[in-house]
Amino acid sequence: MPNKCTNCGKIHPDDADYLLSGCDSCGSKFFFYVTDAHIKNAQKDVEKLSKEELKEIEQDVRDILLDKKIKCGVDDTVILDFEAIRVIAPGKYEIDIVNLFNQRPIVIRVGSGKYEIDISSIVDKRLDS
Amino acid sequence: MISSYLKTIHKKLNSFLSSIFSKKKDLRLGLYGPPNAGKSTLANTISKDWLGEEMSSVSNVEHETREIILKDKIEISSNGKKLTFNLVDTPGIATKIDYENFVKKGITKKDAKTRAKEATKGVIEAIKWLDKMDVVIVVLDATKDPVDQVNVTILGNLEARGIPVLVAANKCDLKASEVTEIRTAFPQYEVVGISAKSRDNVDYLYERLFEVLK
Description:
The complex is a heterodimer of chains A (129) and B (214). By secondary structure, chain A is α/β, with parallel strands linked by helices. In chain A, 34% of the residues lie in helices and 19% in strands. Chain A has one domain (3-128). In chain A, strand 5 (85-89) and strand 6 form a beta hairpin. Chain B is an alpha/beta fold and 214 residues long. Chain B has helices at 2-21, 39-51, 99-104, 109-129, 149-161, 179-185, 202-212; strands at residues 27-32, 69-78, 81-89, 96-98, 135-141, 165-170, 191-193.
């Protein structure tokens, strides 16, 4: 499945190499997962938010989902998958509690596109610590 | 040399004896519910009643509790029976968190955004902790319509996990409170009308807690 870089917006093809090395355009390892059907919408929705807002959201998402206790920082790759939390704008969240209770992977969506984060393994590690 | 040998034996013996006589893990009592229902006020009431000290900060602004707060080894008694548990005060579970609501209540934009972010993290934490609970008091605001997605989802998930539940219909000291509405909405649960703030009917809540744990 293609992934979209949150930093520069480049959509990468279904190829795992850049997930490890970072976006070949800007080096960021923070991606939105997008299905082919959502590529057009994803492009539009991300465009609605300013660069500053996207940066702020990216930092917020990391703060919400990543813990200092676990080895997952700015340099780690985060792929957005499955939806449980929607970030409408910085400081505005919609939470799908049914998905969270069902222990589906934690997900973040920005705007009305299909952008999500799968960090279930990260959360499990945090609870076990 | 002999002294160190004796110390090692003493240590091993202690560990062996404590493994034999140690009790089952402490019971965890979780307080769950939507924001501003009075979970932290109830946590403080319980903690003050049995330990003589408060445990959580309370506020009129929603999402004051944004992290799990624990108080260990609370021993309560009712009708000659005793129960020891670790009390877990959880962040309010919500489906929408908007920093602008905090700004309206006088919080700066920057702090409101941080509060919103922390509150979102708190929702995730509260839900992830649910499986660790042995018994849960779902605290609902009796002045509000009980039938909403948050309340139904919390109760449904507790039932699905087989965790004993007691519903505390809080804020009964307020004129607008309607405990019967909560009873009608959730007839399958034991609903106790209380005021955590003025401590109305809290003793009965303790009594019923023993019953749901039977």
